[in-house]
């Protein structure tokens, strides 16, 4: 199957083979070696010297962990949302009692760093800025370098959801001064769901000391003290660790820059191919994500019928839209274990199926007519 959704993503055989192993003692020496090896390699992927914690849970677990470990009820936070996942981060902060100011952008467009600057100037009590790097629901990547320079310039804590970008798109945790950064195994890491990764800067540790939101399973302090002993506080997803261990080794062999280049090239191929089919992109190319491409569902086409036929006849699985974009866009995931051939196959399947489900390319009216 050509599973082209933005997570979970396909896993290479060497990851699946690595996972086909019996359990080990998660408080024994073998696990300890594996935990330290994975943590060290993740620091290279995150480009950070700070702590990286490996949590057992999905990405949303890491989002909750980020919030509850650095904030207290009543803290003022600025949530910068450009889609479903930005909204989720704001919901989590609200659920735990933060006082949330929300800065939203029209879906399909990125966050405006100047709007963040103004929002921070308007409310000097804001303690932290929560932002999504790559908004998976709209296929838009925010300009993190620009955003971080505004946020860190104002001396605020910077909390970043990089779940669908880190490992696939250039991300520089330390250089950008990001205090808490989340990522997840089932996105660009070529590993099944089950592990989430989170970096914690010195400034975030200071915030942790004062943070009073309730927490237990996600407590950074427990995770760090167990990590020092080569363990996790709770039983980890051992099998997913086997897969992660194998995947990180290959990723660093390929090289992060080569990985970024592969994702950029394949994303461009996707966007070009989709446009050649007569379809239009949901997001402007200047901010379009290199891990997921959002495509407008053309007039007269039922997305359900299109996706069913792509899968039934061509074994190609795409994602639909989320929230307000349900039925309006389809999304092609191209992150992690992705090759040019995967996209060639998607485009060829689309060119066959689209006319079968009523697609008629709109011929642009003659210029000057
Ligand atoms: C997938 C994703 C999440 C949530 O991850 P789950 O593993 O589904 O909990 C959060 N943020 C972004 C940007 C994502 O792409």
Detailed description of the structure:
- By secondary structure, this protein is an alpha/beta fold.
- Helices cover 42% and strands 16% of the residues.
- The strands form four sheets. The protein has a seven-stranded mixed β-sheet with strand order 2-10-9-8-5-3-4, sandwiched between helices. A two-stranded parallel sheet has the order 1-12. The chain has a two-stranded antiparallel sheet with strand order 6-7.
- A hairpin with a 4-residue loop joins strand 6 and strand 7.
- It starts with a strand and ends in a 13-residue tail after the last helix.
Shape estimate? globular
Along the chain, the helix and strand elements come as EHHEHEHEHEEEHEEEHHHHEHEEH
Rounded to the nearest angstrom, the distance between the terminal CA atoms is 46 Å
**What's the Cα radius of gyration?**
21 Å
The ligands bound in this entry are: pyridoxal-5'-phosphate
Report the strand count.
Answer: 13
Tell me the number of helical segments per DSSP (H or I, 4 or more residues long).
12
Provide the β-strand percentage band.
15-25%
Helix vs. strand class: alpha/beta
How do the strands and helices of this protein lay out in sequence?
Blueprint: E1 2-4, H1 13-19, H2 29-46, E2 51-56, H3 59-70, E3 76-81, H4 84-95, E4 99-104, H5 113-122, E5 128-132, E6 134-135, E7 140-141, H6 144-153, E8 157-161, E9 180-184, E10 195-200, H7 202-210, H8 220-228, H9 238-254, H10 256-276, E11 292-296, H11 303-314, E12 316-318, E13 329-333, H12 340-356
Parallel strand pairs: 1-12, 3-4, 3-5, 5-8, 8-9
Antiparallel strand pairs: 2-10, 6-7, 9-10, 11-13
Helix pairs in contact: 1-9, 2-9, 5-6, 10-12, 11-12
The protein binds pyridoxal-5'-phosphate.
